[in-house]
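Running this now, will post back.
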Amino acid sequence: MSQRQLHLNAFLLGTGHHVAAWRHPDAPAAGALDFNSYKHFVQKAEAAKFDAVFLADVAAVSGEGSTHEALSRSDRVHFEPITLLSSLAAVTSNIGLIATVTTTYNEALPFGA
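Update: finished.
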C-alpha cells in the first residue's frame, strides 16, 4: 500500500483575500503593514503543522497614486516579500517560507554599473 501525503501551505495576503476582509470587526486595521500580524499567522500555521506559507509580490501598490489618502483606501498595501520572509525566519523554525519576486518592472543596469 502506498503512503500518500498532503502538503499544507497558507497563502498570506495582507488584509485577506476578500476585498472587504479588513472590515471584519476582529481584523487588525493595519494588519497588512504590521509585522506582528504576519508573525502571529505564520506561527499559528507552524503550530498547526503547515508545511509552508506563501507571499505573492506585486508590481505596484494599487490605488489612485501614491498619496497617503490613496494608500488609506488601498486593499493591497504590503511589505516586500523577501524582506518580510527574512524577518519571519528569525521567529520560526519548522515551516517553509515561499515568495514570488517581481523582477521585470525595472530597467536593467548596464554591466559594471
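The CA atoms of residues 47 and 94 lie 9 Å apart. More later if anyone needs it.
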